[in-house]
Structure formats: C-alpha cells, structure tokens
Design brief:
Keywords: Isomerase. The chain is about 30% helix and about 15% strand. With about 150 residues, it is of the alpha/beta class. The chain has one domain (about 10-140): 3-Layer(aba) Sandwich (RbsD-like fold), CATH 3.40.1650.10. β3 (about 75-80), α4 (about 90-100) and β4 (about 105-110) form a beta-alpha-beta unit. α3 packs parallel to α4. It is globular, with a radius of gyration of 14 Å. The termini are far apart.
Length: about 150
C-alpha cells in the first residue's frame, strides 16, 4: 500500500501509466471487450485488469494520469452501434470523472474504428464493467514542471 495512490491501481497498471508518454492512448474497456486479443497488438502487449466498474477505474487512473489538452480526441467513448448519439449511463458516469479533472467532452468513435484505435494504444485495462459500451480511450497529456 502506498500513501496518496488509489489502492485499486495495482503495480502493473502503475508501471504502464508511468511508462506512457505524451500522446499515448490508454484504453479502459468493459468486460465484454476483446481485451486480451487487442492488448496483444498494443505497445505493452498484454492486458491489464482492474475488476471494478468503469467509472471507478477512470477516477483512479485520472488521479495520476493527465489528459492531453492539445488534441480534440483526447477522451473518447465507443459509440452504440446504429445509435452514435446515444449516451448510456456508463458513459455519463465516465464523462463525470473526466469532467471532474477539467477534461474534455468525450467524442464518439464507431465500434470498429474504436477497435483500430485500441490496437494502436499503449495499453488496455479491462475492467469489471458489465454494462455494454463501457469502453473508453484516454490520451495522455503532460505533467508541467514545478513553478518556482
């Protein structure tokens, strides 16, 4: 246990978040997402797991992970097939966590385009989220220098 770090962030997740650089994507996926096969194509090459609801995982991740402010697609959600404008409760909950750290409004990404983005990501965290379309992409930003 470490002080100041959310206890749901395990050692493997912390390692990956620390290793990522500005512009790298992190995928936070629901339990139905093909996380293992997609993660094999990522930079990390293996799936990470946090068996908690998506919004809890996003809250914990964002306690240590800055969101990119230089691009329009820094926060994204998988769109509902055939209903791209539908916002499900799981999406609202995750958006609330993103907004709590002054992050952007999430954009929608079509299902297969989301899979393609996920394969190019640095890492995939599979959550215990069982609600459909609980899949999100967060692009890493920068940690500014301390101001003296």
């Amino acid at each position: 246990m470490l002080k100041g770090i959310d206890p749901i962030l395990n050692a493997d997740v912390l390692y990956a978040l620390r290793a990522m650089g500005h512009g790298d994507d992190l995928i936070i996926a629901d339990t139905n997402f093909p996380s293992d096969s997609v993660a094999r194509e990522t930079v990390l090459g293996q799936v990470l797991r946090i068996d908690r609801p998506a919004a809890e995982v996003v809250r914990a991740v964002l306690s240590v992970y800055p969101i990119d402010t230089f691009v329009d697609d820094a926060a994204a959600r998988m769109e509902v097939v055939g209903e791209p404008d539908t916002i499900l409760p799981v999406m609202e909950e995750v958006q609330a966590q993103v907004s709590a750290v002054d992050g952007p409004q999430m954009i929608g990404v079509e299902r297969y385009a989301f899979y393609d983005r996920a394969k190019q990501a640095y890492a995939v965290i599979q959550t215990g989220e069982r609600r459909f379309y609980g899949c999100f992409a967060l692009r890493k930003g920068v940690v500014p220098p301390d101001v003296a």
